[in-house]
Automatic annotation (TrEMBL), chain A:
Belongs to the HypD family. The keyword GTP-binding does not apply. InterPro entries: Hyd_form_HypD, HypD_1, HypD_2_sf. The lineage of its organism: Bacteria, Pseudomonadati, Pseudomonadota, Alphaproteobacteria, Sphingomonadales. The keyword Metal-binding applies. PANTHER family: HYDROGENASE MATURATION FACTOR HYPD, HYDROGENASE PROTEIN ASSEMBLY PROTEIN HYPD. Coiled coil: none annotated. The gene is hypD. This is Hydrogenase maturation factor. It comes from Novosphingobium ovatum. It comes from the Bacteria. Keywords: Iron, Metal-binding. It holds the Pfam family HypD.
UniProtKB/TrEMBL annotation, chain B:
It comes from the Bacteria. This is HypC/HybG/HupF family hydrogenase formation chaperone. Pfam families: HupF_HypC (PF01455). PANTHER family: HYDROGENASE MATURATION FACTOR HYBG. Belongs to the HupF/HypC family. The gene is hypC. InterPro entries: Hydgase_assmbl_chp_CS, Hydrogenase_HupF/HypC.
Length: 385, 88
């Protein structure tokens, strides 16, 4: 069992692996989607997939913020910086994502646009204070983990009267994305990925709370187990999913009770409800148009909405040709199915968003299972035990 | 960016701001989204906002795991590398 010696409690890891093997019904196939890219990373890093029985597989979900942002929205951000002369502030993960014609924020910056990498919207607010003559635009991306921070920054800008601050809002929501994966609209049922349950995200769930998944579970009859980030958490959650499937149950269960509560952070939910409104639909890379799945800035805060402030042009945005990122985000393909993987596309020269972020499936495969994905067997990293 | 970092509150300031230490990096963050916090508390930090109180043990284990996976280094570099950070 590779890497097991690095687990917090190797004995517990072996026991859990044994328990999973004993309870997994050999007559069934189990497919569990880990929604969150952080889980993908942990599963790969610790070789959790190698500790699972043959009839159990993990399907990578769309929970990687830069991966799901469609190329058009990135092109818009570049336009705001280049054509409208704004200081554009973006998270580090965004900087190398290729847009149309493989132009990224980094290459736009090299060509003279004023693009800054920030850790927090607080940094963008500070830039707006320091540069009162300039327009400062924060590129808001991410799920319910980053959306409250964006909402708070807008409230802060309003309180301070920072008229030169605005947000290009691309925040997306987890439960509608899970719903979309399950409904797979427009996808031939033969081609749709068959799933038996979900590992619920750790940190998103600290904000929205375990109860947020209850309507989904009731409607679609697939279990959700919220799991912590530790590999032991993931294994424990897998065991809980197996038990639900075997018993014919579908419930929201919370493995990560150390941190996640039923109701989540209500202050954070409150500021999101105050500052944002639901877009009727939003385009996701891979998933296409997903109803009620993203935030726009509410009309009361339109003064801070970059989409209102700048005339953003219509443009023909295009993904890199042959990049399989969209199909990978739906769970129907794997990075090894992409002919650019590890050849034209590497973390140093990413052709698609899934290779850029450490939360992306291509980056995880590249880091941990490159040889296997490229068709040569992986060298043993630690003697089998 | 999507992952939270555990941090310890080392000082509280006006305007619901606080100084925290995360894996050796010191930074000012907002605690406006928490009900009540005190110096010495451990929090989960999302892009400059504390969103959850956690136990010291949980903070330690999460930091250890993030360090092992290489995720911690990325997050800390971003935290330290921009205007609000003060480096390790
Ligand atoms: S390997 Fe690169 S080009 Fe291929 S799907 Fe992944 S990100 Fe896209």
């Amino acid at each position: 069992m590779k890497y097991v010696s690095e687990f917090r409690d190797p004995v517990l890891a072996r026991n859990l692996a044994r328990q999973i093997a004993a309870e997994a019904d050999p007559a069934r196939q189990y497919a569990f989607m880990e929604f969150c890219g952080g889980h993908t990373h942990a599963i790969f890093r610790y070789g959790v997939h190698d500790l699972m029985p043959k009839n159990l597989r993990f399907v990578h979900g769309p929970g990687c913020p830069v991966c799901v942002l469609p190329v058009r929205r990135l092109d818009d951000a570049i336009e705001v910086a280049e054509k409208h002369g704004a200081i554009l502030c973006a998270y580090g993960d965004m900087m190398r994502v290729p847009g149309t014609g493989r132009r990224s924020l980094l290459s736009a910056r090299a060509a003279g646009a004023d693009i800054r990498m920030v850790y927090s919207p607080l940094d963008a607010l500070a830039l707006a204070r320091e540069n009162p003559q300039a327009q400062v635009v924060f590129l808001g991306i991410g799920f319910e983990t980053t959306a409250p921070a964006t909402a708070m920054a807008i409230l802060q800008a309003q309180a301070e009267g920072l008229a030169n601050f605005s947000v290009l809002c691309n925040h997306v929501l987890t439960p509608p994305a899970i719903r979309h994966v399950l409904e797979a609209p427009g996808i031939d049922p033969e081609q749709a990925v068959r799933l038996d349950g979900f590992l619920g995200p750790s940190h998103v769930s600290t904000v929205i709370g375990a109860h947020a998944y209850a309507p989904l579970v009731a409607r679609y009859g697939k279990p959700v187990v919220i799991a912590g980030f530790e590999p032991l958490d993931v294994m424990q959650a897998v065991l809980m999913l197996i038990r639900q499937v075997n018993d014919g149950r579908a419930q929201v269960e919370n493995q990560y009770t150390r941190v996640v509560t039923d109701t989540g952070n209500q202050k954070a939910q409150g500021v999101m409800a105050q500052v944002f409104t639901l877009r009727p639909a939003f385009e996701w890379r891979g998933l296409g148009s997903v109803p009620d799945s993203a935030f726009a800035i509410a009309p009361e805060y339109a003064a801070f909405d970059a989409e209102q402030r700048f005339p953003i042009s219509d443009k023909a945005s295009r993904e890199t040709k042959s990049c399989e990122c969209p199909a990978i985000l739906r769970g129907v393909k794997e990075p090894k199915d992409c002919k650019l993987f590890g050849r034209a596309c590497t973390p140093e020269t990413p052709m698609g968003a899934c290779m850029v972020s450490s939360e992306g499936a291509c980056a995880a495969w590249y880091t941990y299972r490159r040889a296997e994905a490229m068709g040569t067997p992986a060298p043993a990293l630690e003697p089998a035990q | 960016m999507c992952l939270a970092i555990p941090a310890r509150i080392t000082a509280l300031h006006d305007g619901a701001m606080a100084t925290v230490n995360a894996g050796g990096v010191t930074r000012d963050v907002s605690v406006a989204l928490l009900e009540a916090v005190a110096v010495g508390d451990y929090v989960l930090l999302h892009v400059g906002y504390a969103l959850h109180l956690i136990s010291e043990e949980e903070a330690r284990e999460t930091l250890r795991m993030m360090a092992q996976t290489g995720l911690l280094q990325d997050e800390l570099a971003e935290m330290a590398g921009t205007s609000g950070g003060q480096g390790a």
